[in-house]
UniProtKB/TrEMBL annotation:
PANTHER family: FARNESYL DIPHOSPHATE SYNTHASE (PTHR43281:SF1). Its EC number is 2.5.1.1, 2.5.1.10. GO terms for cellular component: cytoplasm. Keywords: Isoprene biosynthesis, Magnesium, Metal-binding, Transferase. It comes from the Bacteria. It comes from Neoroseomonas alkaliterrae. NCBIfam families: FPPsyn. Its cofactor is Mg(2+). This is Farnesyl diphosphate synthase. It holds the Pfam family polyprenyl_synt. The keyword Magnesium applies.
């Protein structure tokens, strides 16, 4: 892009994200095929969860990070699809009755409603496994060390020190019924949401064998973007309608979940999200105009209504 980030046009980002989402969906359609035979129901549930709908923010981060280093689009799309499969698995399990018990996701019935609970568990498990299978294949990168690093970093982001650990903290906080301090909420959200977004931002640098400072800059961008994105998500839960977001809203307050919105109030939480978004964009200064879309994404993350 030729425009500076502070002059970026919303249409530029919107068009780029729509194009990326279509490409990612096409890649997912290939990587999660429609097979014949008795296991077809499992693939149908996986496709229901992973294909269609959603902002594809994580996949877009992979693609834009990869673009900074001239990574081939096909390779970047495989990594983006893998991240979106991992994210879809987390949503399928998060929606189960034993977790958040949600009936609506991305404007359509959740997997356990469209199919059944057992199929939803298997679909989530299969999506997670397939994400690592895709990353480990030579088509993703000819260098086995790069493929191993992608798998290592994604596993760290998704495991007990990442997404799963954050979900555990969320459940424990809800069960305890006692308010968390701001730092505790920040750590919970860093693990539950932020680590996967951080990996998505860093993945393109891993694919491109980028110098360590550039890789760290993208990771720092993703970390702050993830924190801002989560606050924005909590603000949407408190202020938006289900028709706008494509999922049930008001559930955090009803369940007594620990969020910065609940602790700080809407205005202070919004101000903190804005500070984090500006901080995220500042990490990209060394990339120059190449990172304009990523900088614009930081602003979009806190202004969105879906």
């Amino acid at each position: 892009m030729s425009a500076r980030a502070d002059m970026a046009k919303p249409d530029d980002l919107r068009d780029a994200m729509a194009e990326a989402a279509a490409e990612i969906d096409q890649a997912l359609g290939i990587l999660i095929p429609r097979p014949e035979g008795p296991e077809a129901r499992l693939f149908e549930a996986m496709r229901h969860a992973a294909i269609g709908g959603g902002k594809r923010l994580r996949g877009f981060l992979v693609l834009e990070g990869a673009r900074q280093f001239g990574v081939a689009r096909d390779a970047a799309l495989r990594a983006a699809a893998a991240v979106e499969m991992l994210h879809a698995y987390s949503l399928v399990h998060d929606d189960l009755p034993c977790m958040d018990d949600d009936d609506l996701r991305r404007g359509k019935p959740t997997v356990h409603k469209a199919f059944d609970e057992a199929t939803a568990v298997l679909a989530g498990d299969a999506l997670q496994a397939n994400a690592f299978y895709v990353l480990a294949e030579p088509d993703t990168h000819p260098d086995p060390a790069v493929r191993a690093e992608l798998c290592r970093c994604l596993a760290r982001a998704a495991g007990p020190r990442g997404m799963c650990g954050g979900q555990m903290l969320d459940m424990l906080a809800e069960q305890a019924g006692e308010p968390l301090e701001e730092a505790e909420i920040g750590r919970l959200q860093l693990l539950k949401t932020g680590k996967l977004i951080e990996f998505a931002a860093e993945a393109g640098a891993i694919l491109g064998k980028a110098p360590w400072p550039m890789r760290q800059a993208l990771a720092a961008y993703g970390r702050d973007l993830g924190a801002a994105f989560q606050i924005a998500d909590d603000l949407l839960d408190a202020t938006a309608s289900a028709a706008e977001t494509g999922k049930r809203t008001g559930k955090d307050a009803a369940a007594g979940k620990a969020t910065l919105v609940g602790l700080l109030g809407i205005e202070r939480a919004r101000a903190q999200a804005e500070r984090l978004a500006a901080q995220a964009a500042a990490h990209l200064d060394a990339f120059g105009e190449r990172a304009d879309l990523l900088k614009a994404l930081a602003a979009y993350a806190i202004a969105r209504r879906t």
